Amino acid sequence: MLEVRGLGWRGVLEGVSFRVPAGSSVGVVGKNGSGKTTLLRCIGGFLSYCGSVRVNGVEVRELPVGKRVKLVNYLPQLLSRSGYYTVEEFLLLSVSNPFKVEEALDYFQIAGLSGRSLLSLSGGELVKVFLARLYALDPDVYLLDEPSAFLDVSVLPLLGRFVKELLGRGKVVLVVSHDLTFLSRVCTRFLGLKDGKQLFYGDRSTLKEQIPELYGGGFEVLEIDNSLFIKPNV
């Protein structure tokens, strides 16, 4: 379980509060600069936040790094290619179990990249490597910042299946994305941020109702086969 109370950080975020039971996913939405990435970085313990962030009753900022990364972990929006590690070497730095690494490579269908340098990978390949790292670490809370941004359309079903499998195993998943169609397919709850403040936290109907307030006008919100689509008025 993830519990966030009165979360704030240096005027970028203010008074964000929500609760996520085990086996639930939250789509975090809002315009650029609304505080979405800052929210994930606070929950992951990377920023010295005000308020409280608890995972299974434990305050995240009170944990040493070694324990924290096993409880809550983060796929950043901007992925680092520092160093000259191969994909396999990079994964083994985080997860010393070679069998876990092999399983993660197979799951994301990137076993063929294991001997490649991180510096040689495309953006989409790098996202899959970092997702494989999370898969191998297997924290209780997964924080995914724009995971679909560099992935081609053929990989999105795999990412959706991954999120749904995590929920079946009782994990908590937070996903930041501008792709409302993808979020509406994989998330059970939605958190809207506007100018660093919480505009709403609720189900799909809440999201659909609040989208115009969140983003402004100029479009129509459509719901087809339990998925939301944005149709620009042009």
Automatic annotation (TrEMBL):
Gene3D superfamilies according to UniProt: P-loop containing nucleotide triphosphate hydrolases
Domain CRAL-TRIO: 44-223
Record protein name field: ABC transporter related protein
Record-linked InterPro entries: AAA+_ATPase (IPR003593), ABC_transporter-like_ATP-bd (IPR003439), ABC_transporter-like_CS (IPR017871), CRAL-TRIO_dom (IPR001251), Metal_Ion_Import_ABC (IPR050153), P-loop_NTPase (IPR027417)
Keywords, sorted A to Z: ATP-binding, Nucleotide-binding, Transport
Family matches, as PROSITE patterns: ABC_TRANSPORTER_1 (PS00211), ABC_TRANSPORTER_2 (PS50893), CRAL_TRIO (PS50191)
Stored PANTHER family: METAL TRANSPORT SYSTEM ATP-BINDING PROTEIN TM_0124-RELATED
Ranges where the ABC transporter domain occurs: 2-220
Domain of life: Bacteria
GO MF annotation list: ATP binding; ATP hydrolysis activity
